[in-house]
Each structure stands twice: as C-alpha cells, then as structure tokens.
Amino acid sequence: MKKLILVRHAKSSWKHDLSDINRPLKERGFNDARLIAESFDTYNFQIDAVFSSDAVRAMTTAEIFKDVLKISEIDFSLKHALYDFSGESLVNVIKNCNNNIDSLMIFGHNYALTNFVNSYGSKFIDNVPTSGVVVINFDITDWSQLKKGKTILTLFPKELK
Fold first, then answer.
1. Which of the residues 20, 75, 88, 149 could staple to 136 if both were Cys, CB 3.0 to 4.6 A apart?
2. Residue 9 in contact with residue 108, Cβ under 8 Å?
3. DSSP letters of 129-142?
4. Rounded average pLDDT over 75-90
5. 99 in Cβ contact with 44 (< 8 Å)
6. How many domains does the chain have?
7. pLDDT of 74 above 80
8. CB-based contacts of 44, cutoff 8 Å, min separation 6
9. In whole angstroms, how large is the CA radius of gyration of the chain?
C-alpha cells in the first residue's frame, strides 16, 4: 500500500515584479498554509519523504508544513520537475519514487495537481485550491505500477474558516 499526500502551494503574491518561479506567498497564503498544516497534523499520517517544487511559493508552503508537522530535513528534497503545470512531470516523479517510501508528500502546482487527483483518485475535485491537501491511497507495492487509487482525505482552507 502506498499513500500520496498532495499539497497545492499556498496563495502567492503578484505584488513584486518577479519571474513566476520566484513569486512569494502573500499573507493569506501564510495563514491558510498554517491553518491547513495544523488541521492535517491531527490525522497523524506517517510521512516517509517530502518532495517540493523549487518554486519559492511551493518551498515556502513546504517549510510551513515541515515546521508544523516536525518533519526533519533528511526527509525533504526539492525537485525542479515538480515545477509542473500539466501533470506529466508530476506523474513521472511519483512513478520513479524509491519503493522503500510508502507515504510521500508532494508540494506542487495547479493544473497538475487537480488533473492528477481526478485521474488517479476516486473523488472528482473541480479545483484543488491553494493550500489544499488531497490524500490518496494506492493498492500497489511499487510506485512504477501507479494506478487509480482511493481518495481518503481532502482538506481545503474554506472548509476550516
């Protein structure tokens, strides 16, 4: 059994004249990410590894979750391939994940995340919102055998406010 925890980066700011990959979070993003991370923490999921897009907004969201969930640096790595909007690279990262990782948390972007959860999960989600979390269980022992799984949890900021 493999578990995938997908997190869309928190709300980013367009205030600064920066390239897309360098856009920071806005205040609402910090607040929503902390709110979701604190709620997610109550589920006590085991997390074996954390991968994040190297975009500033995704890395910052991951840092907030790491702080709240007390995830060590050893469990964390940046992957430029997750700076992906179509979902192709996201699927490749997952399928090439080391099989000794049973529970993987990924911080990424839309449209890739919404496309993935609707292709591989059991629950249709119109749009994974910023700071949104979707957890999917897969009845596989090898990530390369990725197939449709069961969506077991969704956590979205508007549900907690």
1. 149
2. yes
3. -TT-EEEEEES-SS
4. 92
5. no
6. 1
7. no
8. none
9. 14
Amino acid at 114: T
pLDDT tens for each residue of 20-43: 898 999 999 999 999 999 999 999
The β-bridge partners of 3 are 103, 137
Peptide linkage before 83 cis (omega within 30 of 0): no
User: What are the beta bridge partners of residue 138?
Assistant: 2
The mean per-residue pLDDT over the stretch 95-110 comes to: 96
Q: Are 136 and 151 in contact (CB under 8 A)?
A: yes
Contact predicate 117/104, CB 8 Å: no
CATH number where 30 lies: 3.40.50.1240
Query: What is the number of other CB atoms lying within 10 angstroms of the CB of residue 126?
Result: 7
Residue partners of 146: CB distance under 8 A and separation at least 6: 91, 94, 95, 120, 138, 140
Distance (Å, whole) CA 135 – CA 24:
25
Domain extent, residue 34, equals 2-160
C-alpha 8/C-alpha 78 separation (Å) is 15
**16 has a pLDDT exceeding 80:** no
d(CA 138, CA 150): 7
